[in-house]
Amino acid sequence: MPKYQKKPVEIEAVQYDGTLKSVLAFIDHKCTWMYSKDDLKIKTLEGDMKVNKNDFIIKGVHGEFYPCKPDIFEETYDKVD
Fold this sequence. Notes:
Layout: E1 12-15, H1 24-27, E2 33-36, E3 39-44, E4 47-51, E5 56-59, E6 65-68, H2 70-76
Antiparallel strand pairs: 1-5, 2-3, 3-4, 5-6
């Protein structure tokens, strides 16, 4: 069976600490979002998705936004200096 490897791609991301302030500059005017009482949801290509505390919000290669669990993020991405 053929095997494939992900192409190296740089992304932008920010970690949500449970406050809108922690991500507002990153998402405001760039994606549709809803926030009330520490509950953050962002519009993704798959529909509205909840962002939990410590999740990362990723801006994909085509400008799309989506949440990512911290453990998956750490396994998938390395910080670029």
